[in-house]
Amino acid sequence: MPKTITLDSLRRYAVARSLFRPTTLPKALQRLGFVQADPIRAPARAQDLSLRHRVRGYRAGDLEAGYPQLNVQEDFFVNYGFVTSEIQRLMHPRTARTVWPAARQQQAQAVLEFVQQRGVVHPREVDAAFDHGKSKNWFGGNSNASTQLLDGMHYRGLLRIARRESGVRLYAARPVHEPPASPEAVLDALVDVVVHKYAPLPARSLSELVSHLQAAVPQWTDQRRAALQRARQRLPSLRLEQTTWYWPEGENPASLRHAVADKVRLLAPFDPVVWDRRRFELLWGWAYRFEAYTPAPKRVRGYYALPLLWRDQVIGWANLKVQDGALRAELGYVSGQAPRDAEFRRALEEELIAMKQFLAL
Protein backbone atom coordinates (compact mmCIF):
# COMPACT_ATOMS: atom_id res chain seq x y z
CA MET A 1 0.00 0.00 0.00
CA PRO A 2 1.29 3.54 -0.76
CA LYS A 3 2.33 5.52 2.25
CA THR A 4 -0.07 8.29 3.28
CA ILE A 5 1.06 11.83 2.51
CA THR A 6 1.19 13.92 5.68
CA LEU A 7 2.48 17.36 6.57
CA ASP A 8 5.62 15.66 7.91
CA SER A 9 6.23 13.90 4.61
CA LEU A 10 5.62 17.14 2.67
CA ARG A 11 8.21 18.83 4.88
CA ARG A 12 10.81 16.13 4.27
CA TYR A 13 10.00 16.15 0.56
CA ALA A 14 10.41 19.95 0.37
CA VAL A 15 13.84 19.79 2.00
CA ALA A 16 15.21 16.65 0.32
CA ARG A 17 14.18 17.46 -3.28
CA SER A 18 15.58 21.00 -3.12
CA LEU A 19 18.76 20.26 -1.20
CA PHE A 20 19.88 17.54 -3.59
CA ARG A 21 23.29 15.89 -3.46
CA PRO A 22 25.91 18.57 -4.32
CA THR A 23 27.08 18.42 -7.92
CA THR A 24 28.96 20.61 -10.40
CA LEU A 25 27.96 24.23 -10.95
CA PRO A 26 26.64 23.67 -14.52
CA LYS A 27 24.58 20.66 -13.43
CA ALA A 28 23.18 22.47 -10.39
CA LEU A 29 22.14 25.45 -12.53
CA GLN A 30 20.51 23.12 -15.05
CA ARG A 31 18.62 21.33 -12.29
CA LEU A 32 17.47 24.52 -10.60
CA GLY A 33 16.60 26.30 -13.83
CA PHE A 34 16.56 29.66 -12.06
CA VAL A 35 18.56 31.18 -9.18
CA GLN A 36 17.29 34.41 -7.65
CA ALA A 37 19.86 37.20 -7.33
CA ASP A 38 20.20 39.90 -4.70
CA PRO A 39 22.97 42.51 -4.35
CA ILE A 40 23.17 42.49 -0.53
CA ARG A 41 26.29 40.77 0.76
CA ALA A 42 25.75 39.65 4.36
CA PRO A 43 28.04 37.77 4.46
CA ALA A 44 27.60 36.83 0.74
CA ARG A 45 25.08 37.42 -2.01
CA ALA A 46 21.89 35.35 -2.02
CA GLN A 47 22.77 33.52 -5.25
CA ASP A 48 26.06 32.36 -3.76
CA LEU A 49 24.45 31.38 -0.45
CA SER A 50 21.91 29.28 -2.35
CA LEU A 51 24.45 27.57 -4.59
CA ARG A 52 26.88 26.68 -1.80
CA HIS A 53 24.56 23.90 -0.59
CA ARG A 54 24.12 22.44 -4.08
CA VAL A 55 27.58 22.71 -5.67
CA ARG A 56 30.63 20.79 -4.49
CA GLY A 57 33.41 23.04 -3.22
CA TYR A 58 31.52 26.21 -4.11
CA ARG A 59 33.10 29.53 -3.09
CA ALA A 60 31.47 32.96 -2.94
CA GLY A 61 31.76 34.61 -6.34
CA ASP A 62 32.13 31.39 -8.37
CA LEU A 63 28.93 32.07 -10.31
CA GLU A 64 30.01 35.56 -11.37
CA ALA A 65 33.55 34.39 -12.19
CA GLY A 66 32.32 31.51 -14.34
CA TYR A 67 29.29 33.28 -15.78
CA PRO A 68 30.68 33.92 -19.33
CA GLN A 69 31.33 30.20 -19.81
CA LEU A 70 28.13 28.92 -18.20
CA ASN A 71 24.85 28.12 -19.93
CA VAL A 72 23.09 30.81 -17.92
CA GLN A 73 21.82 34.36 -18.44
CA GLU A 74 20.82 37.24 -16.19
CA ASP A 75 17.15 37.99 -16.77
CA PHE A 76 13.73 38.44 -15.21
CA PHE A 77 11.75 35.32 -14.42
CA VAL A 78 9.36 35.37 -11.44
CA ASN A 79 11.93 37.85 -10.14
CA TYR A 80 15.45 38.85 -11.23
CA GLY A 81 18.25 36.32 -11.31
CA PHE A 82 20.01 33.73 -13.43
CA VAL A 83 18.11 31.48 -15.83
CA THR A 84 19.39 28.80 -18.15
CA SER A 85 19.66 29.82 -21.78
CA GLU A 86 16.90 27.35 -22.67
CA ILE A 87 14.46 29.05 -20.30
CA GLN A 88 15.49 32.51 -21.48
CA ARG A 89 14.71 31.58 -25.08
CA LEU A 90 11.16 30.67 -24.02
CA MET A 91 10.60 34.22 -22.74
CA HIS A 92 11.80 36.14 -25.81
CA PRO A 93 11.17 38.12 -27.91
CA ARG A 94 9.60 39.94 -24.96
CA THR A 95 7.14 42.78 -25.44
CA ALA A 96 7.34 45.16 -22.50
CA ARG A 97 4.16 46.62 -21.05
CA THR A 98 5.54 50.14 -21.59
CA VAL A 99 5.65 51.02 -25.29
CA TRP A 100 8.60 53.22 -26.22
CA PRO A 101 7.88 56.35 -28.26
CA ALA A 102 9.51 56.63 -31.68
CA ALA A 103 12.38 58.78 -30.39
CA ARG A 104 13.27 56.21 -27.70
CA GLN A 105 13.15 53.40 -30.25
CA GLN A 106 15.57 55.33 -32.46
CA GLN A 107 17.94 55.75 -29.51
CA ALA A 108 17.75 52.01 -28.79
CA GLN A 109 18.47 51.14 -32.41
CA ALA A 110 21.51 53.42 -32.45
CA VAL A 111 22.83 51.90 -29.21
CA LEU A 112 22.19 48.39 -30.50
CA GLU A 113 24.26 49.08 -33.62
CA PHE A 114 27.00 50.56 -31.40
CA VAL A 115 27.04 47.42 -29.21
CA GLN A 116 27.07 45.13 -32.25
CA GLN A 117 30.14 46.95 -33.54
CA ARG A 118 31.97 46.86 -30.20
CA GLY A 119 30.99 43.32 -29.11
CA VAL A 120 30.85 44.01 -25.35
CA VAL A 121 30.34 47.48 -23.87
CA HIS A 122 30.50 49.12 -20.47
CA PRO A 123 27.70 51.62 -19.73
CA ARG A 124 30.23 54.44 -19.54
CA GLU A 125 31.19 53.75 -23.18
CA VAL A 126 27.57 54.32 -24.16
CA ASP A 127 27.49 57.50 -22.04
CA ALA A 128 30.59 58.76 -23.82
CA ALA A 129 29.27 57.96 -27.30
CA PHE A 130 25.72 59.29 -26.88
CA ASP A 131 24.37 62.46 -25.30
CA HIS A 132 21.36 60.95 -23.53
CA GLY A 133 21.60 63.16 -20.45
CA LYS A 134 20.03 62.41 -17.06
CA SER A 135 16.61 61.06 -16.09
CA LYS A 136 14.65 60.10 -12.98
CA ASN A 137 15.17 56.56 -11.77
CA TRP A 138 12.80 54.28 -9.87
CA PHE A 139 14.00 55.68 -6.54
CA GLY A 140 13.32 59.32 -7.41
CA GLY A 141 16.97 60.27 -7.96
CA ASN A 142 18.87 61.13 -11.11
CA SER A 143 20.79 58.59 -13.15
CA ASN A 144 22.28 58.43 -16.61
CA ALA A 145 19.56 58.05 -19.23
CA SER A 146 21.88 55.67 -21.07
CA THR A 147 21.87 53.32 -18.08
CA GLN A 148 18.08 53.22 -18.07
CA LEU A 149 18.04 52.68 -21.82
CA LEU A 150 20.44 49.74 -21.51
CA ASP A 151 18.25 48.26 -18.75
CA GLY A 152 15.21 48.58 -20.99
CA MET A 153 16.99 47.02 -23.95
CA HIS A 154 18.14 44.14 -21.78
CA TYR A 155 14.62 43.53 -20.51
CA ARG A 156 13.22 43.56 -24.05
CA GLY A 157 15.79 41.02 -25.17
CA LEU A 158 17.81 43.29 -27.44
CA LEU A 159 20.86 42.94 -25.20
CA ARG A 160 22.20 40.34 -22.82
CA ILE A 161 24.54 40.61 -19.86
CA ALA A 162 27.95 39.44 -21.09
CA ARG A 163 29.63 39.64 -17.67
CA ARG A 164 30.17 42.02 -14.75
CA GLU A 165 33.11 44.17 -13.73
CA SER A 166 33.09 45.28 -10.10
CA GLY A 167 29.37 44.56 -10.06
CA VAL A 168 28.65 46.68 -13.18
CA ARG A 169 26.79 44.90 -15.97
CA LEU A 170 28.55 44.77 -19.34
CA TYR A 171 26.29 44.34 -22.36
CA ALA A 172 26.41 42.45 -25.64
CA ALA A 173 23.86 42.00 -28.40
CA ARG A 174 21.51 39.09 -27.85
CA PRO A 175 21.16 36.57 -30.69
CA VAL A 176 17.80 36.74 -32.44
CA HIS A 177 15.66 33.62 -32.17
CA GLU A 178 12.38 32.74 -33.81
CA PRO A 179 9.37 33.46 -31.57
CA PRO A 180 7.79 30.38 -30.01
CA ALA A 181 4.98 28.87 -32.05
CA SER A 182 2.65 28.20 -29.11
CA PRO A 183 2.23 30.64 -26.21
CA GLU A 184 0.24 27.96 -24.37
CA ALA A 185 3.09 25.45 -24.57
CA VAL A 186 5.61 28.08 -23.44
CA LEU A 187 3.50 29.15 -20.47
CA ASP A 188 3.01 25.52 -19.44
CA ALA A 189 6.78 25.00 -19.64
CA LEU A 190 7.45 28.10 -17.51
CA VAL A 191 4.86 26.99 -14.96
CA ASP A 192 6.64 23.63 -14.78
CA VAL A 193 9.92 25.45 -14.05
CA VAL A 194 8.21 27.28 -11.17
CA VAL A 195 6.69 24.09 -9.76
CA HIS A 196 9.94 22.16 -10.09
CA LYS A 197 11.79 24.92 -8.26
CA TYR A 198 9.43 25.56 -5.36
CA ALA A 199 7.37 22.35 -4.88
CA PRO A 200 5.44 21.29 -2.96
CA LEU A 201 3.36 24.44 -3.45
CA PRO A 202 0.18 25.51 -1.66
CA ALA A 203 -2.55 26.47 -4.11
CA ARG A 204 -2.35 30.19 -3.35
CA SER A 205 1.42 30.18 -3.82
CA LEU A 206 1.07 28.44 -7.17
CA SER A 207 -1.42 31.09 -8.23
CA GLU A 208 0.86 33.94 -7.12
CA LEU A 209 3.91 32.50 -8.87
CA VAL A 210 1.99 32.10 -12.11
CA SER A 211 0.96 35.75 -11.67
CA HIS A 212 4.64 36.68 -11.25
CA LEU A 213 5.30 35.30 -14.74
CA GLN A 214 4.04 38.67 -15.94
CA ALA A 215 7.64 39.85 -15.53
CA ALA A 216 8.89 36.98 -17.71
CA VAL A 217 6.31 37.11 -20.50
CA PRO A 218 4.29 40.35 -20.27
CA GLN A 219 3.15 39.78 -23.86
CA TRP A 220 0.98 36.88 -22.63
CA THR A 221 -0.42 38.43 -19.46
CA ASP A 222 -4.00 37.67 -20.48
CA GLN A 223 -3.18 33.97 -20.90
CA ARG A 224 -1.83 33.34 -17.41
CA ARG A 225 -5.23 32.47 -15.93
CA ALA A 226 -5.74 29.69 -18.48
CA ALA A 227 -2.21 28.42 -17.81
CA LEU A 228 -3.00 28.24 -14.10
CA GLN A 229 -6.17 26.28 -14.80
CA ARG A 230 -4.25 23.81 -16.96
CA ALA A 231 -1.64 23.40 -14.21
CA ARG A 232 -4.32 22.66 -11.62
CA GLN A 233 -5.75 19.99 -13.87
CA ARG A 234 -2.53 18.21 -14.85
CA LEU A 235 -0.37 18.47 -11.70
CA PRO A 236 -0.67 15.93 -8.87
CA SER A 237 -2.36 17.47 -5.85
CA LEU A 238 -3.62 16.73 -2.37
CA ARG A 239 -6.01 18.49 0.00
CA LEU A 240 -4.49 18.46 3.47
CA GLU A 241 -5.67 20.45 6.49
CA GLN A 242 -7.64 22.93 4.33
CA THR A 243 -4.70 23.52 1.97
CA THR A 244 -4.34 22.06 -1.51
CA TRP A 245 -0.75 21.17 -2.40
CA TYR A 246 0.77 20.70 -5.88
CA TRP A 247 3.99 19.04 -7.04
CA PRO A 248 5.62 17.87 -10.30
CA GLU A 249 4.27 14.89 -12.19
CA GLY A 250 6.08 11.63 -11.52
CA GLU A 251 7.12 12.51 -7.95
CA ASN A 252 5.82 10.98 -4.72
CA PRO A 253 6.08 13.22 -1.64
CA ALA A 254 5.62 10.22 0.66
CA SER A 255 8.48 8.23 -0.85
CA LEU A 256 11.06 6.94 1.60
CA ARG A 257 13.77 8.11 -0.80
CA HIS A 258 13.26 11.65 0.51
CA ALA A 259 15.64 11.15 3.41
CA VAL A 260 16.95 14.18 5.25
CA ALA A 261 20.56 14.37 6.40
CA ASP A 262 21.61 15.05 10.00
CA LYS A 263 22.97 18.43 8.98
CA VAL A 264 22.63 22.08 9.90
CA ARG A 265 22.21 24.40 6.94
CA LEU A 266 22.14 28.19 7.04
CA LEU A 267 19.90 29.19 4.15
CA ALA A 268 19.70 32.38 2.13
CA PRO A 269 16.49 34.40 2.63
CA PHE A 270 15.66 33.61 -1.02
CA ASP A 271 16.68 29.94 -0.96
CA PRO A 272 13.94 27.83 -2.60
CA VAL A 273 13.44 25.93 0.67
CA VAL A 274 12.29 29.09 2.49
CA TRP A 275 11.38 31.52 -0.32
CA ASP A 276 7.62 30.96 -0.11
CA ARG A 277 6.68 32.53 3.24
CA ARG A 278 3.19 31.01 3.15
CA ARG A 279 4.62 27.52 2.70
CA PHE A 280 7.24 28.27 5.35
CA GLU A 281 4.55 28.93 7.98
CA LEU A 282 2.56 25.85 6.97
CA LEU A 283 5.59 23.57 7.17
CA TRP A 284 7.40 25.04 10.17
CA GLY A 285 4.75 26.83 12.17
CA TRP A 286 6.34 30.27 12.55
CA ALA A 287 6.71 33.41 10.45
CA TYR A 288 10.04 34.28 8.85
CA ARG A 289 10.41 37.75 7.36
CA PHE A 290 13.23 39.36 5.40
CA GLU A 291 14.10 42.48 7.42
CA ALA A 292 16.95 44.14 5.50
CA TYR A 293 14.59 46.96 4.49
CA THR A 294 12.85 47.14 7.86
CA PRO A 295 13.94 50.05 10.12
CA ALA A 296 16.44 48.71 12.64
CA PRO A 297 14.28 49.37 15.74
CA LYS A 298 11.47 47.27 14.24
CA ARG A 299 13.56 44.24 13.30
CA VAL A 300 12.71 41.02 15.10
CA ARG A 301 15.50 38.72 13.94
CA GLY A 302 18.08 40.91 12.23
CA TYR A 303 19.16 42.70 9.08
CA TYR A 304 19.90 39.55 7.05
CA ALA A 305 18.83 36.65 9.23
CA LEU A 306 19.58 33.27 7.63
CA PRO A 307 17.02 30.56 8.46
CA LEU A 308 18.68 27.73 10.37
CA LEU A 309 17.64 24.30 9.11
CA TRP A 310 18.37 21.31 11.35
CA ARG A 311 17.48 18.04 9.62
CA ASP A 312 14.02 18.88 8.23
CA GLN A 313 13.11 21.55 10.78
CA VAL A 314 13.82 25.30 10.55
CA ILE A 315 14.42 25.93 14.24
CA GLY A 316 16.00 29.37 14.26
CA TRP A 317 18.15 31.86 12.41
CA ALA A 318 21.67 33.29 12.27
CA ASN A 319 23.10 36.72 11.54
CA LEU A 320 26.63 36.42 10.19
CA LYS A 321 29.30 39.04 9.60
CA VAL A 322 33.02 39.09 8.97
CA GLN A 323 35.10 41.19 11.36
CA ASP A 324 38.89 41.38 11.23
CA GLY A 325 38.99 38.32 8.99
CA ALA A 326 36.89 36.20 11.36
CA LEU A 327 33.31 34.99 11.04
CA ARG A 328 30.96 36.20 13.79
CA ALA A 329 27.63 34.42 14.27
CA GLU A 330 24.66 35.58 16.32
CA LEU A 331 22.12 32.77 16.65
CA GLY A 332 18.49 32.82 17.66
CA TYR A 333 16.00 30.00 18.19
CA VAL A 334 12.24 29.85 17.89
CA SER A 335 11.96 27.90 21.16
CA GLY A 336 14.28 30.33 22.92
CA GLN A 337 17.20 27.91 23.16
CA ALA A 338 19.32 25.62 21.01
CA PRO A 339 18.80 21.86 20.95
CA ARG A 340 20.87 20.31 23.71
CA ASP A 341 22.02 17.17 21.93
CA ALA A 342 25.65 16.79 20.92
CA GLU A 343 24.71 15.90 17.32
CA PHE A 344 23.26 19.38 16.78
CA ARG A 345 26.30 21.13 18.27
CA ARG A 346 28.62 19.10 16.05
CA ALA A 347 26.49 19.76 12.94
CA LEU A 348 26.35 23.48 13.70
CA GLU A 349 30.12 23.66 14.06
CA GLU A 350 30.54 21.83 10.74
CA GLU A 351 28.23 24.31 9.02
CA LEU A 352 30.11 27.32 10.40
CA ILE A 353 33.42 25.80 9.26
CA ALA A 354 31.92 25.21 5.82
CA MET A 355 30.75 28.84 5.76
CA LYS A 356 34.28 30.02 6.52
CA GLN A 357 35.64 27.93 3.65
CA PHE A 358 32.92 29.26 1.35
CA LEU A 359 33.96 32.82 2.28
CA ALA A 360 37.68 31.95 1.94
CA LEU A 361 38.41 33.08 5.52
Radius of gyration: 22 Å
- Inertia-based shape: globular
Number of strands: 15
Q: Could you say which structural class the secondary elements and strand pairing correspond to?
A: alpha+beta
Distance between the termini: 51 Å
N-to-C order of helices and strands: HHEHHEEHHEHEEHEEHEHHEEEHEEEH
The portion of residues forming beta strands comes to 15-25%
Mean pLDDT: 94
Major beta sheet, specifics? 4 strands, antiparallel
Helicity, as a percent range: 25-40%
> What is the number of helices?
13
Explain this structure:
It is a single chain. The protein is an alpha+beta fold and 361 residues long. It has helices spanning 7-18, 25-32, 46-51, 62-66, 85-91, 102-118, 123-129, 145-155, 183-198, 203-212, 224-234, 277-284, 342-358, and strands spanning 34-36, 72-76, 80-84, 120-121, 134-136, 142-144, 159-165, 168-173, 201-202, 237-240, 243-246, 264-266, 306-310, 313-323, 326-333. Among the domains are: 102-173, Orthogonal Bundle (Arc Repressor Mutant, subunit A), CATH 1.10.10; 264-358, no CATH class. The protein has 13 helices and 15 strands. The strands form 5 sheets. Strands 12-13-14-15 form a 4-stranded antiparallel beta sheet. Helix 9 (183-198) crosses helix 11 (224-234) and helix 10 packs antiparallel against helix 11. The protein is globular and about 65 Å long.
